[in-house]
Amino acid sequence: MEARAVCEILKYVIIHWKKEAAELSRKALLEGELLVSIEESTPKHRADPSHYVTTIAFAGSACGDLVPKQFLKGIQSLLSGFSGKLTWPSEEAHCAQDLAGLASFQIKIEVDEKPPTLMADCLVIKQFLHRTSIVHPKVRFHFGGEVNGILFKETFGVEKEPVVKLLNGIGLLTSQHHYMRPGFLGAQQVCSRIHPVLGHPVLLSIPDEEANMGLLGQLTLTPAAALCPCHKLHPDQTSRISAAFVFLYGPSGLPLIFPNQEHPLTVFKDNSYLFDWKKYHLRAAPNSNISLEDDLVLPDVSYWIESHERSWPQDSDQQILLLFLMVDFQGGFPAQLTEAWGLQSLLLTHLNSILLENQSLVQGAVQTAVDQALEQHHRRVKAQQKLQASIPVAVSSILSVVAGSTRSSFRALCLQTLQAVDTQEFRRRLHEAFQMTLHQRSMCDPKKQLPEPSSSAEEREEGDESLDEALAGSCCPGEAPRPKRSCQGEGVGRKAQAASWLPLLSLGEAPQRSIGTGPTCSQARGWGGPETRGEDTLWLQEVSNLSEWLRAGPGSRPVP
Amino acid sequence: MAFALMGPEASFFRVLDQHRVSLIQSLKEGPGEAPRKEASSSEVLVSIENIIQDIVTSLARNEAPFLTLDNRSNWENIKFEDSVGLQMIPHCSTKKIKSDSAQSAQRFALILKILSMIYKLVQSNTYATKRDIYYTDIQLFGNQSVVDNIINDISCMLKVPRRYLHILSTSKGLIAGNLSYIEEDGTKVNCTCSTAVAVPSNIQGIRNLATDAKFLLIVEKDATFQRLLDDNFCNKLSPCIIITGKGVPDLNTRLLVKKLWDTFHLPIFTLVDADPHGIEIMCIYKYGSLAMSFEAHNLTVPTIRWLGLLPSDIERLNIPKDTLIPLTKRDQMKLDSILKRPYVTCQPFWKKEMEIMAELKMKAEIQALTFISSDYLSRVYLPNKLQFGGWI
Hints:
The complex is a heterodimer of chains A (560) and B (392). Chain A has helices at residues 3-24, 68-78, 115-135, 208-212, 337-357, 359-404, 408-417, 423-444, 533-552; strands at residues 32-40, 50-60, 85-87, 96-97, 103-113, 139-147, 150-156, 163-167, 170-173, 197-198, 202-204, 219-228, 239-249, 282-286, 301-307, 317-329, 459-460, 485-487. Chain A is an alpha+beta fold and 560 residues long. In chain A, strands 1, 2, 3, 4, 5, 6, 7 and 18 form an 8-stranded mixed β-sheet that branches. In chain A, strands 10, 11, 12, 13, 14, 15 and 16 form a 7-stranded mixed β-sheet that branches. Chain A has a 3-stranded antiparallel β-sheet with strand order 9-8-17. The radius of gyration of chain A is 27 Å and the shape is elongated. Chain B has 392 residues and is α/β, with parallel strands linked by helices. Chain B contains 15 helices and 17 strands. In chain B, strands 10-7-13-12-14-15 form a 6-stranded mixed β-sheet, with helices on both faces. In chain B, strands 9-8-11 form a 3-stranded antiparallel β-sheet, with no helix packed on it. A two-stranded antiparallel ribbon of chain B has the order 1-4. In chain B, 44% of the residues are buried. The interface between A and B is medium-sized, with 34 and 31 residues. Chain B: GO terms for molecular function: ATP binding; DNA binding; DNA topoisomerase type II (double strand cut, ATP-hydrolyzing) activity; metal ion binding. Chain B: Its main location: nucleus.
């Protein structure tokens, strides 16, 4: 199974959904469910390479318009160089309707691959799903199966996860755990969300050369910037920006760059292309040390950041600047689905030239968004500088009076109070005492919960009741619940019972994971991590039920 | 002391003399002056040491130290007494200047810095001006007004007049007329010269004040003051004293006016433009300012009278309309603000004049009188007003 093929099919599906959804409303977020499942078809005789079957199934309200024959034809045409086998359960079957009114399809890909290659492909697919789920928050992406005897399943996209609407049916998940590990942050409470600032879209001019290659139309680029984590709860805590991550999304909210793909966009090798780091007294250097095995959403471009003004205190919190660049076509979707899919690839091929051509525009738009996102950080830095600058003045003034006094009782009392033997030690203790009071203030006095900070560019997703609940640990109402992720530990040995199951919504609910009982992201790396047997059984039971139901066909739907 | 007698006949000053008598009578009948705040050097030093000690104690307890300042510029902390003017109420609201807040940490440090400088000045019995303080570290202080505000805050916090902090303000005022004195350093000053004398920077140190003046005329603007000098006003209406603060008066000019009143009980009059700004300047001399209300007893002269230019003079003297200036929006706001101040209620004639101005919607500078004749001010207007009691 080639990861590329799977991802291209997924792209095709999402483009189709977006196209159909755009006919109703361009601004509505996509809704649906998508599954990728990988099974070894001959588990007992592990031939090398082994034979794997990847099942892609999807269900969405717009699915009903998808004509299977045409869809399959389209998929086959875009995977013309693909060596594996592509199958569809029934070429004449119409889109099945489940009880929730959602239509569902499935498609299978069969390949022969060596296990290490398959493992690598799985990581790529997982990252692609994760990246896509960030901007399609109402689509649930399930990824599971069995590889080398290890059962795994992950779901990206959790109900009630805080979301902001960006533009044109694209949203953004704002729980910070997608971008940063909790352990990175220190012991104190932090806000669990990021607060993206949406910049103004800019119209990119397409150079003639690119236009002649078929890239027609009007391109827009819209930036969104945020700092992670949010430090509103501790505005006095020193923090420094240690990294910048750039995420590139193309039309339909699809990742522009394939995970693990060699970077085609050389513009970003120039540290100053996107942003004037000097404005904030920062230096940037490219960081290519990004591992696919990380559970976080991996950026397309990453920079190390450091301040060239002064060294930061050891206990400074680190923050990451997140930059989302959304590239889209102004005019909407081409008539043909395959054409729309083809434009995605064409865009990536020529994006470097386009970005170079429009550098000042892009930089201006990005700068504005980043300026707003960094505004509070900048104010915090300035506030810290003021506090630190005041200490030596206060210390020397106090020392001047104490040392200059002719009243020995006064001098003695002052020194004794700070347990200093002489004025030199007294100075040192004064300094330490002032620093201690500042440190205490920043650590022990978290701000009370604040309402969601309003941004002219942010729109709260309607119906996001979770955002109205003020929970501890979030300066913005609605702490993000943990994602429904759980990974089966190595050696459990249980295999997937239904090789052809479709864990889709039939009764309205996917198997629920209890929040917080599963392993944390930092614990569940790849395929490792324990899981409760009860949840696993429930999951498999649901899968089994669904499988039977789908095999029965539309005429024999069980009544709930 | 004998001064050159070039002035009008004695009968000219009859009304003035009567006015002086009534002022002195009111003084005797009145509540009497409140005790002045005095502070010895050692008291100032101990006050500063107490502040430092409190800060050190807070730090030892791991508590962020802070300073408590009275809200000097809050009308809610001000009361008005006819005999004193604007002064701070005994238990006024305060504000905390915290050392651990980004908004106030800098101010906290600067207050300590200036306290330490005052400590050294008092200890060494030397003096410095506010300007000197600022120039010790202009980068640290930023601008002069920061220093000025902090010094006033410290004066209010320690409850001692500024002069006891050994900080002098740079004088900008001028004085001329029948007056002589000896400055602290022994310099003899005679203000009867043809050119004016700068108001000294150490009013407290002046001794051997001597004058025969029948009145003291406070002139708002330097231009008017120079005009009077050029017209030889001090000799024509001798014996008299004229003084100007060149606009909003500095502390030393106010202290000198106060000292002249306290020493000689002279009738004191103001000559200001007939506009809200001039009226406000006059009120500063008479009743004090919001910012310096904590030192009202040392600065205010409630017996000051408004001589001119009165808004009612505009019509009475038939001042040409084209010399008048429309009141701006800012003027209107200032006029409304003055009319609401507590002291206006006990000055019905002043209130009436301000209402005339508000109705006219016009203002007039003293210079408008030159359109009648170039020396109208010194030859006709002022002599008539002074001779016939044309003050309110």
